[in-house]
Amino acid sequence: MTTNSLAPIVTLLQQRAAISSEWMNEVLRVWMRMYPGLVNEDELRRQADALLKELAKLFSEHSGETPPDIGANSALGEIARELSADRAKKGFKPADTAQYVIALKNVLTQHLVSTLNETPASLTLCLRAVDGVLDRLSLLTFEAFVETRERVIAQQSLSLVELSTPVILLWNNVLLLPLIGVIDTVRARQLTERLLESITKYEASVTLIDVTGVPVFDTSVAWHIMKTIDAAQLLGSRIVMTGISPEGAQTLTKLGISFANVISRATLRAGLAEALQLVGRRIESTGGVHK
Amino acid sequence: MNKISVYVAAEFNIAEAARQAKLMASVLGFSSVQSYYIATAASELAANVFIHADGGMFEVSALTDRPGLELVVSDHGPGIADIEKALQDGYSTAGGLGCGLPGVQRLMDEMDIDSQPGQGTVVRARKWL
Question: CATH number of the domain at B3-128, out of 3.40.50.450, 2.40.30.30, 3.40.50.970, 3.30.565.10?
Answer without folding.
Answer: 3.30.565.10
